[in-house]
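Box 3.1 A note on notation
Throughout this textbook, protein chains are presented in two layers. The first layer is the amino acid sequence; the second is a token string describing backbone geometry. Keep the layers aligned when reading.
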Amino acid sequence: MNKQLFCRASELEATLSPFALVTILTTTGSASRNQGSMLVEPSGATTSTIGGGLLEAFAIEEAKKAIREGQQSLCLDFTVDQEAKKGAGKVSLAIQVFAHEEGGSFFSLAHQWEASTIPFVFGFSLNTHASPFLLSASHQCVGSCDPELLNHAKKQLEEGADKRVALTSGEYFLTIPTPLVNLLLIGGGHVNQAIANLCHALGYGVQVVETRAEFATNTLFPYARKFSVATTIAKALEGVDINRFTYTVIASHNVDQGSLEYLVSTPTPYIGVLGSRLKARMLFERISVPLKERNRIFCPIGLDIGTETPQEIALSVLSQVMKEKSQRTGKALRDLERNLVVVRGAGDLATGVIIRLRNAGYPVVVWETDKPTVIRSTVSLAQAMFCSETEVEGVKAKRCKDVDEALDVLQQGTVPILADPQGESLGKLRPICLVDAILAKRNLGTRIDLAPLVIALGPGFKAGEDCHVVIETKRGHSLGRIIHQGEAIANTGIPGLIAGYGRERVIHSPCAGIFVGKATIGDLVEKDQVIAYVGEVPVLATIDGMVRGMLNSGLTVPEQFKIADIDPRGREADYTTVSDKAKAIGGSVLEVLDGFLGGR
């Protein structure tokens, strides 16, 4: 929803004029928008949009009909047909009709909150025409006192995403009309003034921090939510609100080392500093910030689009803010599928490769089996094959039913995973590079002619025959070595040592049967403790330690199949982040791909 929508709704409410709100509930496949709302009047006049085209025309007619026939609420579906494909997508819509009573102020209040960029939840029932409700960030509530519903709404203000919730009283849809994103602008100069004006157009709230009162005024910043002025920036920062939706822009010479280090300690995901590359070097030389936290600091600030004026710089900066907020590539949509990489497999080592490629800006599509036998599921994107979606180190993956859905998901900044172990989608995807990351210790069908560049991980492949390049996967001095001719070191069948344990830490099935886990990854276990069953046969822990890997329950396994592993380091074991080995292998893949595209 946008400002015009609630403004018009409040006007119609004041004149007791009926109208309908059309809201996108869900989308699948191809759709012009994934969320949005539109107001429809009895005449067919509209405010805001849900994407235009045939979808919007359909929604307008259905909304007019609902108003005319006195319907209060309904849900319906629209099938998206494209020239190249019928049934390319589906959009589920909710239509709510509002006929007002004298003295009503529901939408007037919503308009006031929105005009002031105060975050709030707007919710309505999908089952009956129960009263809609509003809940502001300050927990002011209108229209509902259901504690269960209000708890969901409060949680949504923390999470920041539209959602459907099923309650004992029925199903509700909760949406946040005003973006939770807000800009903390340090410095009241021309650039931050331009950023504030553009923020208003985007619906983003603004807070201004200054040491000079004359640069923190309603004249310069007419839409600012808050001003904080003090003798130092450090003191002024004490007067602002910072959360994980707060993006910080520093355009002031008065920010000292302590203030910058304080900002790094807050939840702000983005700290942009206006300045040159020389200023950036000097900045990083003097601040004391952990290396991993420096990724949140951007100096110079903005995207490279050729800027001169404050307004152009504002566009560049907010484009970068949106890129970071949405975890997108920032590339032209036309070029998004260029340099596409297909990765076979999404186990823990393959996930390290996928994450490094994804973070370097490469679009990645994954081929997996329908039920992958991954052990370290907490660090394997293959887990999406079981639970539809998963996330590892900030990289999201989603199971897709076909190539069309995969390409749509790719545009949303998520890694699509297809159940395509034989690579039947190769012709549609036409990747620039294919990476065999199955780690089966043998070749399961990868050929050197499948893509312009074919990379294989580990033993079972010969560079120059099966693929162009092999990457060494055995721990030790040669880990990550790039092999252009020949093979990786042969598999010894002996697991690498951790805290002096090798074979003992890896557990295999005692017989054939259906696997059912009892312990879960992250559990501390003792030797001889029952951690799983294969059929009715118990599986015992072989050593004391932490369960770092466990097969998904319900899979049928043969005898002596790897089903779990235990880390003897116990509490010190890390089971939530990609291993150094996986990232080293991923770095080698990235080096080969960059070199190939660079003509080296």
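The mean pLDDT is 90. The chain has four domains: 3-175, 182-326, 333-493+584-597, 503-568.
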